[in-house]
Amino acid sequence: MKLELENSELAAILNAEILQIRKGYIINSVICDTRAIINPLNLAFFALVTDSDDGHNYVKEAYALGVRTFIISTPVNLPEDTSLFLVKDCLVALQNLAFFHRSKFSLPVIAITGSYGKTIAKEWLYFLLKDEFKIVRSPKSYNSQLGVALSLLEINESHTLGIFEVGISKPNEMDILERIVDPTLGFFTGLGKAHSTNFSNEKQHLSEKIKLFKHSNFVFTNDKFRSVFRRTKLNGVFVSKQSKELAKKANTPFLETLSTCIETAFFFGLEPNFIEAKLEYLPFISSRLEVIAGSNNTVLLNDTYSLDESSLRMALTFLVQQKEKEKKYVVLDDTELSEAQKEGFLTVIDEYEIDEVFFVTKDTYKVLHALENASILFKGNYNSALREIVNQLAEKKHQTWLEVNQTKITENLNILKSKLNRSTKILVMLKASSYGSGDVKMAHFLEQRNVDYFGVAYADEGVALRESEIETPILVMNAEKDALQDIITFNLEPAIYSFNQLETFINVLIRAGKKNFPIHLKVETGMNRLGFLREDLEELMAKLATQPEVYVKSIFSHLATANSDEVFVAKQTKVFNEIANDLLNGLDEKPWLHILNSEGVLRYPRYQMDMVRIGIAMYGIGSDNNLKGALSWFTRISQVKKIKSGDSVGYGRTFVATKKMHIAIIPVGYSDGYRRILGNGVGSVFINNHKCSIIGSICMDMCMIDVSDVVCSEGDVVELLGPNITIEDLAIQMQTIPYEVMTGISKRVPRVYIEET
Ligand SMILES: *Cc1c(COP(=O)(O)O)cnc(C)c1O
To answer: Is the pLDDT of residue 286 over 70?
Structure first.
């Protein structure tokens, strides 16, 4: 907001009695809630009186925070350095100010009303039209007498289109809102029975609503309102067949609203092709129906805001589309319904395939808590007790989490498989908690995908897999001396890379009375890490020939340059083949041979031999463009605040604002693996697909981002890694490789596994 009104000008606009005044003080913006005060300079505080609270109780607090201009309806005592403007009603005064402000601009304004779908309509219109216009729109669902006024105050010279939501709950409210919004265009979503208790009948409700459009040039709406519009002489633009057909291409149950938005976009000259292309990215707006993960593998659809037939139908349509869960239940709050109303709703529910309907009793929570693997729709009025029950049933939300997309992992695995012969075995590396994705869960998931072997770095990782009942063979890369007994007990298979280690293991096997225990020989071909050397071979064969305790299941080596130096790859494989041949000649058994890792499979499938060992490509990293990123890292905004020019951010004041800015604080820092090197503009995150850069230094548990160009608030989801920021991007910014990024995400970040349906 930038009102630029001198105090006496403001008093005049508000038609206020001046009790005291500080002349020359400029008001740029208004506030009604002291909790929202960030910068008190140039603020006017409106002491609103509502049924539940009285703003006059907070004027002292506002003063203490630095506010110096007050609009009040009861005299208060404040020091002389303040301005006190007395009005009859602070809300009306604020609306007058909004009216004054709105009148200064001649931009087209679309006003949206109806008893449902207003926020969705507003957001979708914004989405469709934002490339053509600089749009000012209501923040969130600001559609009340107060919300509309605050929304209008956001208009400035740069805007070329306004889109505002308008809601009413009592007769005669619309006249006031119509006057202050002064819409040039209208958008009518339709009429349900929500909020209708204050109206004597539906007709009154409808005629009150459409008063909003009495001066509008055109009103966009569904064609079922044709006759009403004709009667009331409104200039309706009704949804065409073309808009309806286009809307069907989007994946949404709210077709009526979407087709009206498309019709509006046509009106503004957008081409069908352009709209169709955009529909693919149509934002999902949870509006009132919230989708929440519940305990016991349930999905909770919370629609406890209004109870009427049309919103019930919309919610039921959405429920039956939830294919992921086996059962579908509806919980209906019938406590305030008449028998006839209840009958009516049940008849509607009957039309959909629902497994069971529950009503509210004192045992509701207990009954619902016992449900499993189900999608549950909660339907009730805005004061319904169900809302609390939904809260209790909701799985506790993580602030920060790493999402592992198992569908994408399967797809990536299939890409790798497509490069290999059917008979080639696949070993999946699960070391370092499956590259940071979380070990045991991944192993269970992969066991279902017919992986032949698992590989781990240390024995205890293998033990954890066995304890969770993984049966696939497990190769342990670093079989340490102390862990050799565990290897036997838990049926793990060690990589053997030195005489010392081999002898120790044989001794352990002898003590345990074991024979023919599978081992995997690791040989040195150019990496110069662990492994037998060429000159060890003779002695090694002699040793193995006399020890029946072990049997060589495979021989392997590891590429040093799978993603860079082809010549060296050829050299290593040549050396490997020579060594392997010597060993094969000297051994009774016929061990498998393997040398390729993920990138090796992608580039050199000709060296696949008997088995390949894959890791990182499953998560979408590698030279094949079809691989898809399977990890996403998210957090939620802890706080949003305004700073002004000259303010600094964070430790060491490494960032100093040169203009007014909005910043957000997010609860992720270097101890989560979000490294300090990403600070001061190096890294960035995404909010609503909008890039926001990191400002200041990264702290241990949090960091700050610039959100000046994006509408966001506390609790909004922030992408640190995912569709917009690949692991490779992050690796470049961190000056490292994807492996280190992935395994560096701290254990305290919970891993959440998802499957696309
Ligand atoms: C980690 C590892 C792999 C897998 O490497 P990616 O590049 O992730 O496919 C293969 N073999 C050995 C010995 C490893 O340590």
So the answer is: no
The pLDDT of residue 425: 96
Distances (CA, A) of 178 to 118, 213, 749: 16, 7, 49
Percent pLDDT > 90 in the chain is 68
Cβ of residue 597 lying under 6 Å from some atom of ligand 1: yes
CA 585 / ligand 1 centre spacing (Å): 27
Distances (CA, A) of 345 to 332, 374, 435: 9, 21, 51
Contacts within 8 Å (CB) and 24+ apart, 37-44: 37/62, 37/65, 37/66, 37/67, 38/641, 38/642, 39/642, 39/643, 39/644, 40/65, 40/66, 40/67, 40/68, 41/66, 43/67, 43/69, 44/10, 44/69, 44/70, 44/71
Query: What is d(CA 31, CA 22) in angstroms, rounded to the nearest whole number?
Result: 18
Q: What is the β-pairing status of strands 109-113 and 161-165?
A: parallel
- Kindly report the protein residue whose alpha carbon is nearest to atom 3 of ligand 1: 597
Q: How far is the CA of 746 from the centre of ligand 1 (A)?
A: 21
Helix ranges (DSSP H) in 130-279 = 145-152, 173-181, 202-209, 226-232, 241-248, 255-267, 272-279
Total residue length of the chain: 757
Q: 617 pLDDT band (50/70/90 cuts)?
A: very high
Instruction: Confirm or reject: Cβ of 558 under 6 Å from ligand 1.
Output: yes
Please list, in sequence order, all residues whose beta carbon lies within 8 angstroms of the beta carbon of residue 56, skipping any fewer than 6 positions away. 47, 49, 72, 73, 74, 76
- Does residue 595 have its Cβ closer than 6 Å to ligand 1? no
Rg of the chain, C-alpha, whole Å: 33
Ligand 1 mutation target, pool 431, 474, 558, most atoms within 8 A of CB: 558
Instruction: For 331-395, give the DSSP string.
Output: EE--TT--HHHHHHHHHHHHTS--SEEEE--TTHHHHHHT--SEEEEEE--TT-THHHHHHHHBP
Cα torsion angle, 557, 558, 562, 568, sign: negative
Q: How many angstroms separate the alpha carbon of residue 448 from the centre of ligand 1? A: 21
Neighbours of 728 (CB within 10 A): 15
pLDDT of 748: 83
Q: How many CB atoms lie within 10 A of CB 149?
A: 28
Q: How far is the CA of 462 from the centre of ligand 1 (A)?
A: 16
